[in-house]
Amino acid sequence: MAEPLLDIAGLSLAYDTARGAVRALDGVSLAIPRGGAMGLVGESGSGKSSVVLALLGLLGKEATVTADRMSFAGEDLRAAAARLRGARIGTVFQDPAAALNPALRIGAQVAEPLVQHRGLSPRAALARAVELLAEMGIPRPAAVAQAYPHQLSGGMKQRAVIATALACEPELLLLDEPTTALDVTVEAQILDLLEKLRAERGVSMLLVSHNLGIVDRLCDELTVLYAGRVAEAGRTADLLDAPRHPYTRGLLAALPRIDRGRIARLAPIPGSLPDLTQPDPGCNFRPRCPFAAAGCAAPQALRHGDARAVACHRAEAVRDLPWPQPEPVATTRAPPGASLLEAQDLARSFSLDSGFAGMFRRRAEVRAVDGVSLTLRRGEVIGLVGESGCGKSTLGRLVLRLIAADRGRIGFDGEEVPPKPPDAFRRRAQIVFQNPDTSLNPRQTVDQALRRPMERFGLARGAAATAEVERLLALVRLTPAYRTRYPHQMSGGEKQRIGIARALASRPDLLVCDEAVSALDVSVQAAVLNLLGDLRDTLGVAYLFISHDIGVVAHVADRIAVMYRGAIVEEGAAAQVLSPPYHPYTQALLSAVPVVGARGRAAARMRLAGDVFAAPAERGCRFAHRCPAKLGAICEDQAPPVQVPAPGHRIACHIPAAELARAPAALAAAE
Questions:
Q1: Cα(389)–Cα(616) distance, rounded to whole angstroms?
Q2: How far apart, in whole angstroms, are the C-alpha atoms of residue 185 and residue 411?
Q3: Residue 164: CB partners within 8 Å, gap ≥ 6?
Q4: Strand order in 308-310's β-sheet?
Q5: Are 326 and 267 in contact (CB under 8 A)?
Q6: How close are the terminal C-alpha atoms of the chain, in Å?
Q7: Cα 102 from Cα 157, distance rounded (Å)
Q8: Whole-angstrom Cα distance, residue 383 to residue 303?
Q9: CB atoms within 10 A of CB 323
């Protein structure tokens, strides 16, 4: 058997902290052959990114690394990492906006490794950088090379980062959550690009991701990490089709599956990661494992067999036992009630920077929301989906009157909401933002953050406010002990629960959830989604749920509205929108979703050319410039009619509904 390109054995890592040494990695082993791709999965805090940083030699002075072997192409990484990174090992990090220097032009950043590692002149390196940008599928690469990062979309920034990582033709790519911040169509383009690079250049890959669908599509092998230790490793198809370690099974149970539609409740893994300053000598998953028994307190060695390794002595005994489902909440959900929110003909435009508009030959003004009408009933959940830049977040802010509309009317509970709404509306309509780290005040305790809305709207003070704070904490499944904590003392999932509790403190009837779970790993996401469902059933709260994760939307939404270029192109019940007939744009979105178990389906996916920012014709269908099913001049010259293939289901398209109904199902469930 050929020597693997990357061969890691017994990798351990400890960080010195005021509380003592944190054992971030404990005896991790993995091997990647030339041309192979391995996925590395696990919850936040499991050590995935620490593996990447250890391989690159980018850990700080407080880190202590030990290993039996850290070999890359026969060289010891502990001595050679600084020389190899950027030259033979390329890296793509999660956030391209953070990875790129905002003060340097894109071309200079892509060219830098060629100057540093290959000794090219700046002129020659820049010429090669333009070629690399073109190879990444970026239109007008010469113009993009002269642009700054803030002038590019998220997908273009990530392509530029990949171009930089590939500049010196590395043999190994380390990909740390490379598509987490991207919408599904851009994500699909990046995955196509990575597959092409692997096929044409033979690049090996180590992919860190919490998206199991992406791992299933790209990777041959899979390693599951839990609290710094390998829980299970083997062929990707084997682990995802028939997981044996309870932790792997728990990750899959917590995953909302778009191909299975809506289910009553997800099954999050209870509890949280252990304290790594006091590593458990036995199975460190034991406190959270529903199958724990005698013998689990003993050290769990990786047991090899059937081309996989499992660190669980009970794996065979429990493999056929069902994963426990969460107890149903003792409430009966009432059907959606009377109309709560009515938006009519909302519109809002923004001016673009003149240099930005000129470089890409775009109009100096963009219509972020262009004549949108929407009705939301009490206790109803509307999922709002679409690519980045289609106007989802702008629409959410418009209906809350957080930004002014150019035109349109907003009605709430039978009364019109003026441009400067009264306090009564502010109290009853709240928002939960994507990132709790930026939406929570780092200088306020949980108690202070939750009291503020009560005092602002005169709902409670003193002892009554204290009791209400504890009630809100109980609603989001947190104990009163959290009252004294600051944001930095909580996990991401706990902070997001506090964000939800703060939104609920004013006793609202409407919540706008703007990407409220996109930054969470699958287990915490499942717990938050269950919580939102419970609050809807218990309190009758209505949600406008904005997300680029269609799997999540399919799980939570009663109705789905699909938005493109500032307008809603399709709207209907969730089951109607997720199956034919649907708008060609909806079909493209669904086709781009990576589904666990749908291997080999990538070749049949509908791929969109261009992006949502490309200027459409002044008249006609706003999707015509990208539509793979365009009929011809009628799509470019005439606004599409609104068809109603079933009651409550509306599609704005020239293609007859009978023909739309013959479209292939984009979400055929895995066998």
A1: 14
A2: 34
A3: 90, 109, 110, 112, 113
A4: 89-92, 172-176, 204-208, 37-41, 221-226, 229-235, 308-310, 303-305
A5: yes
A6: 33
A7: 11
A8: 44
A9: 16
Measure Cα distances from 6 to 109, 150, 228 in Å: 27, 35, 19
Kindly state the tokens that stand for 364. 């100096």
One-character DSSP codes across 630-655:
--SHHHHHSPPPEEEEETTEEEE-SS
Give CA 437 to chain center in angstroms. Answer: 16
What are the tokens at 360? Answer: 């890409």
Asked if 476 contacts 531 with a C-beta cutoff of 8 angstroms, the reply is yes
CA 395 – CA 403 distance, rounded (Å): 9
Q: Helices 446-456 and 462-475, interaxial angle, to 10°?
A: 120
What's the pLDDT tens digit per position in 546-569? Answer: 988 888 888 889 999 999 999 999
Torsion from C-alpha of 282, 286, 292, 296, nearest 10 degrees: 0
Strand 89-92 versus strand 6-17 pairing type: unpaired
Token representation of residue 351: 């001016």
In the numeric block, the tokens 């489902």 are attached to 325
- Name the residue with tokens 């993995």: 30
Cα distances from 104 to residues 147, 149, 425, 490, 511, in angstroms, run 9, 8, 45, 35, 40
Q: Report d(CA 76, CA 480) in Å as an integer.
A: 51
Q: How far is CA 117 from CA 82, 85, 153, 360, in A?
A: 11, 10, 28, 32
Helices (H), 541-583: 550-556, 574-577
- Residue 523, amino acid: S
Tokens 């209906």 belong to residue: 399
Distance CA 14, CA 28 (A): 13
Residues 6+ apart with CB under 8 A from 190: 155, 158, 159, 162, 178, 179, 182
Confidence at residue 666, expressed as pLDDT on a 0 to 100 scale: 75
Contact, 211 vs 183, CB < 8 A?
no
Give the residue carrying structure tokens 């990695």: 25
Interhelix angle for 106-118 vs 154-166, to 10°? 10
Which residues, listed in sequence order, are joined to residue 6 by a DSSP beta bridge? 32, 72
Look-up: residue for tokens 């666990």?
596
Closest CA to 429 of 406, 402, 468: 402
Model confidence, pTM: 0.86
Question: Using CB atoms within 10 A of its CB, is residue 63 exposed (0-12), middle (13-18) or buried (19+)?
Answer: middle
The predicted structure's pLDDT at residue 354: 45
331: tokens are 């409430």
Provide block-wise average pLDDT over 10 residues at a time, the chain (671 residues): 87 89 93 95 88 92 93 93 93 85 95 94 96 86 92 82 92 88 79 88 91 90 95 95 93 79 74 86 94 92 89 91 76 71 94 54 72 94 90 93 95 94 95 84 95 93 94 86 89 83 92 84 83 84 90 89 95 92 92 76 66 68 90 92 95 95 71 33
Structure tokens at 625: 């410039």
